[in-house]
Amino acid sequence: MKKIGVAILGLGVVGGGTYKILTEHREFYRTTQGVDLEVVCVLEREKSRIESLGIPKELVAKNIFEIVSNPDVNVVVESIGGITEAKGYVIDALNAGKTVVTSNKELFCKYSHELERDARRMNVGLYFEASCVGGVPIIRTLLDGVQSNKIYSIEGIINGTTNYILTRMTKDGMSYEDALAEAKRLGYAEADPTADVEGFDAAYKLSILSSLAFHTKVPFANVFREGISKLTREDIDNGRGLGYVLKLLAVGKETERGVEVRVHPTFVKSTHPLAGVDGSFNAVYLTGDSVGEVMLYGRGAGELPTGSAIVSDIIYASTHDGNRYSTFKNTEDADKDVKFVTDFESAYYLRLTVTDKVGALSKITALFAKNNISIVELMQKSLDAERATVVLVTHSTHEEAVKNAVSRIDASDVARVESVIRVLS
Ligand code: HSE
Hints:
Radius of gyration: 24 Å
Distance between the termini: 54 Å
CATH superfamily of the largest domain: Dihydrodipicolinate Reductase, domain 2
CATH class of the largest domain: Alpha Beta
Number of domains: 3
Bound molecules: L-homoserine
Strand content: 25-35%
Shape: elongated
CATH topology of the largest domain: Dihydrodipicolinate Reductase, domain 2
Oligomer: single chain
């Protein structure tokens, strides 16, 4: 039987889950896949992690060189995260002729051009299913399942931490601060939650997914990004009254205007399939020219779901001849022929504080009309003796037109724009 030696770098949540699955399912894979996957070494500084997984001492390597020079190692799993150590270790492994499986979205998003160049040169595999949406097999779906399609769009809830926070704010009336504190307590959010709540994590994933979906390099720098840290319960409640649910949505599209990639809070109609994706769950909804709409739903993080993606990659690498690389020119920057749309089209929700006096509303609506923005719904409620809150939703319009209207309203003597949230049309 074919024997594959696996080394795991980093035994945190993801590496630990990978170790558990590999050891607990070893016999199952021997029977079902005809391959014997054996963890032959690990790299981890924290003794407690090694002990809690019950890993024999002799499997613990002193450094990366012990691992990459070990002829029994065929596949190196990188589950360290970040760039500092991980990048050098992955490059060392590839250049030593080892296939690499990584869960590192930031590394893959920023450096896949370098890593893939080394993998091609050494004729080894480079797999990254676990880098995007944890246990949800979206990479394999794009590479295999829907490869016959021209993909028009990907819309996804691809960050569990923010989805958990928004769900608690929406369903249980929690404030952003309380929901974030709870997410930290439950281990969904990191001590420093910036990468999740400011949309970096989702933007790394969207850069990778869009590159695969649209067969062109979509660098992280081209992804428009806005996080959830400034959202208020008031807007969530107003949106709910209008039949919307607020989500941090990642949107990638390819249209005649070019490639459009953005991560931002978005109101989704409560009847849309993504509206029901709650808590730490993730989902990706894609549209292809032949298949139509496909939605994948599942756990985007966690030791066993992410470990599931890693071990599936190890099995794929072990049971397929040849290696699979990008179906696009994987360079550092985007191809210069590709246009990125920044003045994207969307419907918008706006909340304004308006001075409650004669003609105020007509001044505001005139400013929208001047920018060719058509209003679908408008509600006003009194705030105090002198001011009112106005909430409105526009028809589909252009980002630039909305920015322009907002700056004109803010400069007027009748109103201030408190929030602007895009609405999935
Ligand atoms: N922090 C991520 C999330 C999981 O909350 O979805 C790893 O990408």
